[in-house]
Design a protein that fits this description.
The chain is an all-alpha fold. It has four helices and no strands.
């Protein structure tokens, strides 16, 4: 099923006249999205089986901590870069030039608040 969806999407890109690089980039984005969800599920499973009374740094707790930070930072970067398209490295202040709100402080605040809320989720 996944390959049929993927091939349909690639066929759409081909009929639109996109190059092989565009198809590769699209597949890379699709795989990256799946990695994000897989990391989140990995953290959830580690959380379910994590012993609550274990206070020392066992290998299990180290793996959970690394997965938690990795998943949270990856999801935050996906929000800011892909979902919001907020960052443009060529623009002044690194925010995209086309914005709904004139004052860029709102966007910087939203980026920081999103990071904090992702860690407290």
């Amino acid at each position: 099923m996944f390959t049929s969806i993927l091939s349909d999407e690639c066929r759409i890109y081909i009929t639109l006249g996109k190059s092989n690089f565009a198809i590769f980039f699209f597949v890379l984005i699709l795989v990256s999205q799946h990695v994000r969800y897989a990391l989140s599920m990995f953290v959830t499973l580690f959380s379910v089986f994590f012993p609550a009374d274990d206070l020392h740094w066992s290998p299990y707790r180290v793996c959970w901590t690394l997965a938690y930070f990795g998943s949270t930072l990856y999801s935050w970067a996906w929000d800011v870069l892909m979902d919001w398209s907020a960052i443009d490295l060529k623009a002044p202040g690194y925010l995209r030039e086309r914005r709904l709100l004139a004052w860029p402080g709102y966007y910087y605040a939203a980026i920081v608040i999103d990071l904090m809320l992702r860690f407290f989720w």
